[in-house]
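Hey,

Quick one before I head out. I ran the complex with adenosine-5'-diphosphate overnight. Inputs first:
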Amino acid sequence: MPESEDDCAGLYLTVLCWIGLGLATLDAFLQPLPWGLTWAMLAMSYLAGGIPAARSALAELWHEHRLDIDLLMVVAALAAASVGAALEGAVLLALFSLSQTLEHRAMGKARRAVEALMQLRPEFALREGPDGVTEVPVADLVPGDRVILRPGARVPVDGRVADGSGHLDESTVTGESAPVRKVAGDPVHEATVNLDGILTVEVTRGLETSTVAQMIKLVTEAQAMKSPSERFSDWFGQRYTIAVLAGAVLSWFGFRYLGHTQGEALYRSATLLVAASPCAVVISVPAAILSALSAAARGGVLFKGGGALEGLAEVRTFAFDKTGTLTTGLAAVTNVVVLYGEEDGFLALVAGLEAQSEHPIAAAIRREAAERGITPAPMRDVRAHPSEGITGQDAEGPIWAGNARMLAAMGANLPDALVSLADGSETLIVVGRGSRILGAVTVADEPRTTAAEAVRDLKAGGRVSILMMTGDRAPVAARIGATLGLAPEEIHSGLLPADKVQLVDKAAKRGKVAFIGDGVNDAAALARADVGVAMGVAGSEVALQAADVALMAEDLRKLAAAQRLARRAARVIRQNLTIALGAMVVLVTGSLFFELPLPIAVLGHEGGTLLVVLNGLRLLADPIRQHQTV
Ligand code: ADP
Ligand code: MG
């Protein structure tokens, strides 16, 4: 990794710079060194400390046409040297070099938190082939291969359990520490750990498209994406650097005018240059944001950039989709009522219609059919109608399944035999051909165990309101809402995807809105909300792409924890900017009006920079993963 090599070189140069400074200081106070050696030491200190800074400043100037704060440091040190304060200049360079190295190390640590996942990838896997089990490099695995997982082994790829059962520790991907039981058919993710059991896993995705690869890509992109406050500090740093350089030159004339000697004026201008340099301001925001992003990623919450983090801190309304978000999405068929023909044939038709749908209702119907050993009927021209239902064609002609909206669109009326079902608090799916009703299925979905607590946590965080939005009928919405402790005015039912968008817009008048959904039928609302949150996305490419924040595990409590983290990050950013700007004002005032000595300016300036970096790094320790109970 070139970055870490750079880090090392930086460290050696810093050490050299300090050795030079130390020996030169010895001389200044104890005089045990011959003169020439002192100068050599000072020169070494200047070169080791100044060259990296000068190099990066010149590169920035050449390629980006931007003035860098590194340049200010080099100019200040040279100015100091030219007025006989060479030792002070060396102190400046040594401290600057040290703070740069520490900063790089610290920030690199934040950046690398997710790349650490890479190292959790095993290199070899046990592939089951026609001639027995062989060890192959993981990169050679292709979808369809079967690999054997022994207890204690890391999962080498994304796949699906084909045989066996056991518990997996998925904390590397979801941040969830409790082991998860896996049986045939369940997905498994790369880099998780097989705790017990012997599993045969069918590979579903190659290495480049795996969950971990996507997490790494997202987090790396997120860190490159600048948040509003980061853009501010960049902008500020750039303007300010020019202003400081100009100011220092002007101040020289000023000090001369006030009667100082050339040397004195230069010394004081150099002090001003150091005092006014905005290192701390520039680093204060990214230090906080990068730390928070990495802490969140370790807890299984991916933010797509600092903007999403700052956005979440300010969210006033959390709008939840119901099906698959507040509820488990693992709905079960509770009733099958057939008006014509027998039940198995009817279910075969419905399962055929729902064969390709991603909707949790469709999954429930497919599971029911599978349990009864029913093969789904073949269908053509299947089309999903978001928040209404689904239509298709079989040998007999067009067929549909859906809710009251779909029923109305088909010009059908609910037959008496189904009216009692329609009054219940379970989701009703009516099936028909044209205006003729064939029968109906009811599906019940339970709230997630974490949902009620998540709603409470969010409200406890203060200043937020909660909304539930669903395309389902009012009685179902009311039943689920009641178990979550939601008031009737917080529940909105019978919505089309466009209605959800409208409600998000309406809520946006009162402040930032987060929409939390599973990506099925609510991509538009996810996109429209200030902060789109997708959940349970370990493995789901679409949801990862659509949202600003992704909860890897299906644990809604992480949302409240993530907002707490985001708010803390916002506070740290404010503290940092206050510290950085405050220190600058004090030092500049001191150097203009109180003859502040250069070494003090240097100490104050570098001390402030270190302080904001360390303050930002505190966020690395924020334990999203500790907010959960096991
Ligand atoms: P939610 O907003 O709660 O996530 P949706 O908007 O996804 O719910 O769906 C609303 C309603 O539309 C469902 O309750 C169901 O009646 C109907 N529906 C949606 N998709 C399907 C489908 N694939 N098959 C049958 N009915 C569906
Ligand atoms: Mg939904």
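The mean pLDDT is 82.

Talk tomorrow,
K.
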